Amino acid sequence: MDQDAFRDTYNAINERRCPYEKSILTGNCACRRSKRFCIAEREGVHCTADDAQTRCLEFLEQLRTQARFALRTTDGHAALPHAKAMRIQVGGLRGVRAALAADQPEAGQGAPVEDVDGLLGAAVDRFGALEALPYGRIIQQIAAYKGRRSFRERRRERKRTDDGDDDPA
After folding, report:
1. Where does the pLDDT of residue 169 fall: very low under 50, low under 70, confident under 90, or very high at 90 and above?
2. Buried-exposed string 137-163: b where 16+ CB fall within 10 A, e elsewhere
3. Which helix (H) or strand (E) holds 3?
């Protein structure tokens, strides 16, 4: 399928795009307000509620503003490469989860976030507003988030393991 035709069809079908689409499609999180759809063997994610989409967009905007140093970017509005977008999305949600479970520092650190809308709703209930979240703690999770390792890194690791297996010692 032609990329322009795909993009046009995608925009026509998905008028309320989920801000966490990348994270949902990679299995790093889920949301009760999301709905998956397919176009030409490609998947997309649609948000089923305006208020949920608005809150998610506001939260991501806050994260991008607060995490510029951690992401090593100066422009808070430019498009981010996939890896940095994943760090913002997944690391930010893990940071919120850690802030809500402050008495349990290791609670679900690497586990996928089960409900984005529920998590952000609970955070707003506890802290009063998105602006009042403890962004220092959230940024730590963004900085600590490691996405999928590159092919080169995986190959080096495999080579080290193979070389280590051949040693008689």
Report:
1. very low
2. ebbbbbeebeeeeeeeeeeeeeeeeee
3. helix 3-13
